[in-house]
Structure formats: structure tokens, C-alpha cells
Amino acid sequence: MHIPDGYISPTTAVVSYLVAIPLWMYGFKKLKEKLNEETLPIIAALSALSFVIMMFNIPVPGGTTAHAVGAVAIAILFGPWVAFVSVSLVLLIQAVVFGDGGISAFAINSLAMGFVGGFVGYYVFSLLKDKTKYAPFIAGYLGILASAIVIGFVLGIQPLFWSDNGKPLYFPFDLKTTLIAMIGVHLIIGIAEGILTQIVYKIAESKGVLV
Amino acid sequence: MKRVLFIFVGILILLVPLGLLSENPAWGEWDSEYFKEKLGFIPAGIEKVESVLHLKALLPDYSLPGANEVVGYYVSALVGVLLIGGFYYLIYFFVRKRA
């Protein structure tokens, strides 16, 4: 789900940074409020978990792979803003050190995987937590699916707006293709995100750290 | 909880070579060759950027240049986790200092 450099137009990149920067600033403030001796190692470990889990490329029918993100687990335990900032930090390190995800796409990748994934997961969990014990699973499943839809949308609008005589300049495939692909893949990968979220929630529950 | 999580992350790091089992790239994260094959050309923006930026990463695609694939993947997992951990302790250090 990491958009590389060159796949999105400079306009898309600039707009996504303009949206992300104030959100990062507010989110960072929220993170600082939540950080204390007790939460620090947990938030750091969950972020590390997010990093490592993204290295597990799971084969999906259609000749591709995808991975869980771990955003929803952080969102449920520490709130969506902390999830957004934490996943952004992970994505920044992935982009700079490992070339996974573009620098120009860092903002949109953060908005999709961190912000949208975190917020959707958080609110789905809030709605369902008193109704079913599988609320974390469902939250994880829908959270990553929402992230995938955002990525599919951003990729799919590229040829619509940025073509030269019918030749796409950036990502070439149309919206229908990208949405079907991203949704299709993450209908399966959602299970991985769901299981991960449920496990982390169970650990937190058993240790009495839930707020 | 932190102990359980540390163990959980540790186990995942040990298992991380499993992430290499499939050679297939993620959907929408292809090399420019893919576009050439599918479209007959590489979109200008992608062609321009790929050669310039992508290969400059320290551990490109979670590999250690010149090293075995699995070794590179292990090194990448450890480097990533240490960087992330370090970042949080640094942030916390400054937060506490100011308080």
C-alpha cells in the first residue's frame, strides 16, 4: 500500500502535504500528552510491531502480495491521533531508509494508512465494543480496507487529470481498476489486520492497560 | 503489557524471513519494467523519478546490498525497530525535559 515516488503528480503530492502537515502537528501534540513512563514503551513497541508486520508480505490471488499495517491496534489503545502519528513515523523511516513508499507520497501514504485507517478503526471499535467481542477484529478489517480505498482512489485519479495526449504521465490505470484491485486485495488482507488487532487488544485487556 | 509486546515483536522479527516467501510485488508498487510490459511505455513521471530516487535508500527494499536476502531482511527489521524505538525515547526525553 506504499505509493512510490513518481506514481502521483506533484499537485497531488503538494495537496496531500498541505492536508497532512496541520494534522501531524495536532497529532504530535496529542502524542506528547499521552507519553509517560508507562505508555512510552507500549506505544514504541506497537509502532515497532507496525513496522515489522508490514515486512510480512502475504501472497494474494492475482499475483500480488500485501501486508497488515497495525494502525487500528494503536488507535484502539491510544486513540486515532496517536495511531496517525505513529504510523507516519514508521512510514517515514520506511521511505527514507528502505525506499519503501515515496518521499513525495509520504503524506498521502500517512493519511491513508495512519489517519483514515486509524480513525475508521477507532470509530468502528467504539460503535461495536459493547456489542461483540470481535469488535477489534472488525475494526481492523474495516480500517485497513478504508486505507486501501484511499490509496486506490488517489492512484486512480492520476490518469484522469494528468495525461499528455492520452498518455498518462503518472500512475496509468483508471479508477475502476485501482479500486477493484485495492479493495479485492484488502478484503483478504483485512483478515490479517483484524487478527493482529484482536491479539493486541487481548494482550492489553489481560494486562489491564485499557483506558 | 510491554513485556508481552516486546516478546511478540521479538518473535515476529525471528519469523520475518517468511515475508520473503513470495517474490510478487504489492499491487501498485511495481518496477518501471512492469509498465513497459503492460503499456508499451513507462509513464514519464515514473521514468523520471525511479532512477533518481529509489536506489538511494540505505537498505533498498529491506536488503543489505551484497548480502544474502535473509540476512538483509533480518538486518532491516532490526534497524527499523531500533530506529523507531530510539525516536520515541528521544521524543519522550524532550517532552520530559521541557515539563
Q: How would you sum up this structure, described in words?
A:
The complex is a heterodimer of chains A (211) and B (99). With 211 residues, chain A is mostly helical. Chain A has helices at residues 10-34, 39-53, 71-78, 80-98, 106-128, 135-156, 158-161, 175-206, and strands at 58-60, 64-66, 163-164, 167-168. Chain A has 8 helices and 4 strands; from the N terminus they run H-H-E-E-H-H-H-H-H-E-E-H. A two-stranded antiparallel sheet of chain A has the order 1-2. In chain A, strand 3 and strand 4 (167-168) form a beta hairpin. In chain A, helix 3 (71-78) packs across helix 5 (106-128) and helix 6 runs antiparallel to helix 8. Chain A is globular. The two termini of chain A are 31 Å apart. Chain B has 99 residues and is an all-alpha fold. Among the domains of chain B are: 30-57, no CATH class; 63-99. Classes of the chains: A mainly alpha (211), B mainly alpha (99). Chains A and B meet through helix 2, strand 1, strand 2, helix 4 and strand 4 of A and helix 1, helix 3 and helix 4 of B.
What are the SSEs and their pairings?
The complex is a heterodimer of chains A (211) and B (99).
Chain A: H1 10-34, H2 39-53, E1 58-60, E2 64-66, H3 71-78, H4 80-98, H5 106-128, H6 135-156, H7 158-161, E3 163-164, E4 167-168, H8 175-206
Antiparallel strand pairs in A: 1-2, 3-4
Chain B: H1 2-15, H2 32-39, H3 44-53, H4 69-98
